[in-house]
Amino acid sequence: MLERLAFLTYGLACYLVFLATFLYAVAFVGGIGVARALDGRASGPLLVAVGIDTALLGLFAVQHSVMARRWFKERWTRIVPEAIERSTFVLCASLALALLMWQWRPLGGSVWRVNDPAGRATLWTLFGLGWTTVLVCTLLIDHLELFGVRQVWNRFVGRPHVAPRFVTPGPYRLVRHPLYLGFLLAFWATPQMTLSHLLFASATTAYILLAIQFEERDLVRVHGRLYEEYRQRVSMLVPLPPRPRVAADHGGRAATPRAAIDARSSGPCGVR
Asked: How far apart are CA 97 and CA 99, in angstroms?
Protein backbone atom coordinates (compact mmCIF):
# COMPACT_ATOMS: atom_id res chain seq x y z
CA MET A 1 0.00 0.00 0.00
CA LEU A 2 2.86 2.38 0.79
CA GLU A 3 4.38 1.75 -2.65
CA ARG A 4 1.03 2.28 -4.38
CA LEU A 5 0.49 5.51 -2.45
CA ALA A 6 3.98 6.69 -3.41
CA PHE A 7 3.28 5.92 -7.07
CA LEU A 8 -0.01 7.82 -6.94
CA THR A 9 1.60 10.83 -5.28
CA TYR A 10 4.42 10.80 -7.80
CA GLY A 11 2.03 10.52 -10.74
CA LEU A 12 -0.14 13.39 -9.53
CA ALA A 13 2.93 15.55 -8.89
CA CYS A 14 4.20 14.87 -12.42
CA TYR A 15 0.82 15.81 -13.82
CA LEU A 16 0.79 19.10 -11.89
CA VAL A 17 4.29 19.90 -13.16
CA PHE A 18 3.08 19.22 -16.70
CA LEU A 19 -0.03 21.35 -16.24
CA ALA A 20 1.95 24.33 -14.96
CA THR A 21 4.50 23.96 -17.76
CA PHE A 22 1.80 23.65 -20.42
CA LEU A 23 -0.04 26.75 -19.25
CA TYR A 24 3.21 28.71 -19.15
CA ALA A 25 4.03 27.45 -22.65
CA VAL A 26 0.79 28.95 -23.98
CA ALA A 27 1.77 32.30 -22.50
CA PHE A 28 5.39 31.87 -23.64
CA VAL A 29 4.48 31.30 -27.29
CA GLY A 30 1.84 34.01 -27.30
CA GLY A 31 3.86 36.52 -25.29
CA ILE A 32 0.99 36.89 -22.84
CA GLY A 33 1.84 38.23 -19.40
CA VAL A 34 5.20 36.49 -18.88
CA ALA A 35 8.58 38.05 -18.23
CA ARG A 36 10.39 35.70 -20.62
CA ALA A 37 8.62 35.00 -23.93
CA LEU A 38 9.40 33.45 -27.28
CA ASP A 39 9.70 36.86 -28.97
CA GLY A 40 11.81 39.75 -27.83
CA ARG A 41 14.85 41.87 -28.54
CA ALA A 42 18.13 40.17 -29.31
CA SER A 43 20.27 39.90 -26.21
CA GLY A 44 23.54 38.78 -27.79
CA PRO A 45 25.26 37.71 -31.01
CA LEU A 46 22.78 36.23 -33.49
CA LEU A 47 24.74 33.07 -34.25
CA VAL A 48 25.26 32.31 -30.58
CA ALA A 49 21.56 32.74 -29.87
CA VAL A 50 20.58 30.57 -32.83
CA GLY A 51 23.00 27.89 -31.65
CA ILE A 52 21.60 27.89 -28.11
CA ASP A 53 17.98 27.86 -29.28
CA THR A 54 18.65 25.07 -31.77
CA ALA A 55 20.36 23.00 -29.08
CA LEU A 56 17.39 23.49 -26.74
CA LEU A 57 14.95 22.43 -29.45
CA GLY A 58 17.16 19.45 -30.28
CA LEU A 59 17.32 18.35 -26.66
CA PHE A 60 13.55 18.54 -26.40
CA ALA A 61 13.12 16.54 -29.62
CA VAL A 62 15.62 13.84 -28.65
CA GLN A 63 14.07 13.38 -25.22
CA HIS A 64 10.62 12.93 -26.75
CA SER A 65 11.69 10.67 -29.58
CA VAL A 66 13.95 8.36 -27.60
CA MET A 67 11.67 7.91 -24.59
CA ALA A 68 8.68 7.29 -26.87
CA ARG A 69 10.24 4.39 -28.72
CA ARG A 70 9.21 0.88 -27.84
CA TRP A 71 12.81 -0.40 -27.59
CA PHE A 72 13.58 2.29 -25.01
CA LYS A 73 10.46 1.60 -22.96
CA GLU A 74 11.20 -2.12 -22.87
CA ARG A 75 14.60 -1.37 -21.32
CA TRP A 76 13.46 1.61 -19.26
CA THR A 77 10.74 -0.37 -17.46
CA ARG A 78 13.41 -2.70 -16.12
CA ILE A 79 14.50 0.26 -14.01
CA VAL A 80 11.33 2.34 -13.66
CA PRO A 81 8.15 0.47 -12.64
CA GLU A 82 5.68 0.25 -15.50
CA ALA A 83 2.96 2.01 -13.48
CA ILE A 84 4.99 5.23 -13.41
CA GLU A 85 6.72 4.95 -16.79
CA ARG A 86 4.29 7.35 -18.42
CA SER A 87 4.42 9.79 -15.50
CA THR A 88 8.21 9.77 -15.71
CA PHE A 89 8.06 10.56 -19.42
CA VAL A 90 5.65 13.43 -18.70
CA LEU A 91 7.99 14.79 -16.01
CA CYS A 92 11.05 14.60 -18.28
CA ALA A 93 9.15 16.25 -21.13
CA SER A 94 7.94 19.02 -18.85
CA LEU A 95 11.45 19.65 -17.54
CA ALA A 96 12.88 19.71 -21.07
CA LEU A 97 10.24 22.24 -22.10
CA ALA A 98 10.80 24.30 -18.96
CA LEU A 99 14.53 24.39 -19.69
CA LEU A 100 13.83 25.52 -23.26
CA MET A 101 11.61 28.38 -22.08
CA TRP A 102 14.04 29.38 -19.33
CA GLN A 103 17.13 29.48 -21.53
CA TRP A 104 15.53 30.64 -24.81
CA ARG A 105 17.41 33.47 -26.52
CA PRO A 106 15.20 35.89 -28.51
CA LEU A 107 16.66 36.77 -31.90
CA GLY A 108 14.90 40.08 -32.54
CA GLY A 109 13.93 41.10 -36.06
CA SER A 110 10.55 40.87 -37.76
CA VAL A 111 9.45 38.65 -40.65
CA TRP A 112 5.91 39.99 -40.85
CA ARG A 113 3.57 42.12 -38.82
CA VAL A 114 -0.20 42.36 -39.23
CA ASN A 115 -1.58 45.73 -38.16
CA ASP A 116 -5.12 45.39 -39.46
CA PRO A 117 -7.44 44.83 -36.43
CA ALA A 118 -9.49 42.20 -38.23
CA GLY A 119 -6.37 40.36 -39.33
CA ARG A 120 -4.91 40.43 -35.83
CA ALA A 121 -8.18 39.20 -34.35
CA THR A 122 -8.27 36.35 -36.86
CA LEU A 123 -4.73 35.27 -36.05
CA TRP A 124 -5.31 35.41 -32.30
CA THR A 125 -8.48 33.36 -32.80
CA LEU A 126 -6.51 30.74 -34.69
CA PHE A 127 -3.88 30.80 -31.93
CA GLY A 128 -6.56 30.09 -29.33
CA LEU A 129 -8.21 27.51 -31.57
CA GLY A 130 -4.91 25.67 -31.89
CA TRP A 131 -4.39 25.33 -28.15
CA THR A 132 -8.06 24.46 -27.64
CA THR A 133 -7.73 21.71 -30.26
CA VAL A 134 -4.73 20.29 -28.41
CA LEU A 135 -6.65 20.18 -25.13
CA VAL A 136 -9.81 18.71 -26.67
CA CYS A 137 -7.84 16.01 -28.47
CA THR A 138 -6.18 14.90 -25.23
CA LEU A 139 -9.64 14.58 -23.69
CA LEU A 140 -10.93 12.58 -26.65
CA ILE A 141 -8.09 10.05 -26.50
CA ASP A 142 -8.15 9.75 -22.68
CA HIS A 143 -6.44 12.71 -21.05
CA LEU A 144 -5.71 10.89 -17.78
CA GLU A 145 -3.99 7.97 -19.46
CA LEU A 146 -2.05 10.19 -21.83
CA PHE A 147 -0.47 11.97 -18.86
CA GLY A 148 0.03 8.95 -16.64
CA VAL A 149 -2.67 9.60 -14.04
CA ARG A 150 -4.85 6.65 -14.94
CA GLN A 151 -1.91 4.27 -14.73
CA VAL A 152 -0.97 5.26 -11.18
CA TRP A 153 -4.62 5.32 -10.10
CA ASN A 154 -5.20 1.82 -11.48
CA ARG A 155 -2.11 0.68 -9.62
CA PHE A 156 -3.36 2.33 -6.43
CA VAL A 157 -6.78 0.63 -6.52
CA GLY A 158 -5.42 -2.66 -7.86
CA ARG A 159 -7.20 -2.39 -11.19
CA PRO A 160 -5.53 -4.04 -14.21
CA HIS A 161 -4.49 -1.83 -17.09
CA VAL A 162 -6.75 -2.10 -20.15
CA ALA A 163 -5.14 -1.48 -23.52
CA PRO A 164 -6.69 1.39 -25.53
CA ARG A 165 -9.03 0.43 -28.36
CA PHE A 166 -9.74 2.00 -31.72
CA VAL A 167 -12.39 4.72 -31.77
CA THR A 168 -13.08 7.66 -34.09
CA PRO A 169 -13.98 10.63 -31.90
CA GLY A 170 -14.76 13.99 -33.51
CA PRO A 171 -11.82 15.43 -35.46
CA TYR A 172 -10.13 12.03 -35.82
CA ARG A 173 -12.65 11.29 -38.54
CA LEU A 174 -11.27 14.14 -40.64
CA VAL A 175 -7.57 14.08 -39.84
CA ARG A 176 -5.32 11.42 -38.31
CA HIS A 177 -3.35 13.82 -36.13
CA PRO A 178 -5.61 16.71 -35.04
CA LEU A 179 -3.52 17.20 -31.89
CA TYR A 180 -0.46 17.98 -33.98
CA LEU A 181 -2.59 20.18 -36.23
CA GLY A 182 -3.55 22.15 -33.13
CA PHE A 183 0.10 22.68 -32.26
CA LEU A 184 0.85 23.88 -35.79
CA LEU A 185 -1.97 26.41 -35.62
CA ALA A 186 -0.80 27.63 -32.22
CA PHE A 187 2.82 28.01 -33.35
CA TRP A 188 2.22 29.69 -36.72
CA ALA A 189 -0.80 31.91 -35.99
CA THR A 190 0.74 35.15 -34.77
CA PRO A 191 0.20 38.77 -35.80
CA GLN A 192 3.95 39.36 -35.59
CA MET A 193 6.35 36.72 -36.84
CA THR A 194 9.79 37.42 -35.46
CA LEU A 195 12.99 35.54 -36.25
CA SER A 196 12.68 33.74 -32.91
CA HIS A 197 9.13 32.71 -33.65
CA LEU A 198 10.04 31.58 -37.15
CA LEU A 199 12.90 29.41 -35.85
CA PHE A 200 10.66 27.87 -33.20
CA ALA A 201 7.72 27.27 -35.56
CA SER A 202 9.90 25.88 -38.35
CA ALA A 203 11.84 23.54 -36.07
CA THR A 204 8.75 22.21 -34.30
CA THR A 205 6.95 21.73 -37.61
CA ALA A 206 9.86 19.70 -38.99
CA TYR A 207 9.93 17.68 -35.79
CA ILE A 208 6.16 17.03 -35.86
CA LEU A 209 6.35 15.79 -39.45
CA LEU A 210 9.21 13.47 -38.53
CA ALA A 211 7.52 12.32 -35.32
CA ILE A 212 4.38 11.35 -37.24
CA GLN A 213 6.42 8.95 -39.35
CA PHE A 214 7.78 7.18 -36.26
CA GLU A 215 4.36 7.14 -34.60
CA GLU A 216 2.55 5.72 -37.60
CA ARG A 217 5.20 3.06 -38.06
CA ASP A 218 4.61 1.98 -34.45
CA LEU A 219 0.83 2.05 -34.93
CA VAL A 220 1.04 -0.13 -38.02
CA ARG A 221 3.30 -2.55 -36.15
CA VAL A 222 0.83 -2.79 -33.26
CA HIS A 223 -2.49 -2.64 -35.13
CA GLY A 224 -1.60 -3.79 -38.60
CA ARG A 225 -4.41 -3.70 -41.15
CA LEU A 226 -6.70 -1.66 -38.91
CA TYR A 227 -4.39 1.32 -38.96
CA GLU A 228 -3.37 0.83 -42.57
CA GLU A 229 -7.02 1.09 -43.62
CA TYR A 230 -7.50 4.19 -41.49
CA ARG A 231 -4.38 5.79 -42.96
CA GLN A 232 -5.62 5.16 -46.49
CA ARG A 233 -8.94 6.86 -45.83
CA VAL A 234 -8.12 9.81 -43.59
CA SER A 235 -5.77 12.72 -44.26
CA MET A 236 -2.69 13.15 -42.06
CA LEU A 237 -2.92 16.85 -41.10
CA VAL A 238 -5.20 18.69 -43.55
CA PRO A 239 -8.89 18.22 -42.63
CA LEU A 240 -10.56 16.62 -45.65
CA PRO A 241 -13.64 14.43 -46.11
CA PRO A 242 -12.58 10.81 -45.57
CA ARG A 243 -12.05 8.73 -48.68
CA PRO A 244 -14.40 5.81 -49.32
CA ARG A 245 -13.72 2.78 -47.20
CA VAL A 246 -11.60 0.25 -49.03
CA ALA A 247 -12.10 -2.65 -46.67
CA ALA A 248 -14.09 -3.03 -43.49
CA ASP A 249 -12.18 -3.47 -40.27
CA HIS A 250 -12.92 -6.12 -37.70
CA GLY A 251 -15.37 -4.03 -35.70
CA GLY A 252 -17.00 -2.04 -38.48
CA ARG A 253 -15.08 1.09 -37.47
CA ALA A 254 -12.24 3.05 -38.90
CA ALA A 255 -8.98 2.93 -37.01
CA THR A 256 -8.12 6.07 -35.13
CA PRO A 257 -5.14 6.87 -32.98
CA ARG A 258 -6.48 6.57 -29.52
CA ALA A 259 -4.00 3.75 -29.72
CA ALA A 260 -1.38 6.48 -30.04
CA ILE A 261 -1.49 6.59 -26.25
CA ASP A 262 0.54 3.41 -26.38
CA ALA A 263 2.46 3.96 -29.62
CA ARG A 264 3.20 7.56 -28.92
CA SER A 265 5.48 9.73 -30.91
CA SER A 266 6.64 13.06 -29.65
CA GLY A 267 4.73 16.20 -29.58
CA PRO A 268 5.38 19.29 -27.61
CA CYS A 269 4.36 19.89 -23.96
CA GLY A 270 4.59 16.28 -22.81
CA VAL A 271 2.43 14.78 -25.44
CA ARG A 272 4.02 11.84 -27.32
From this structure: 5
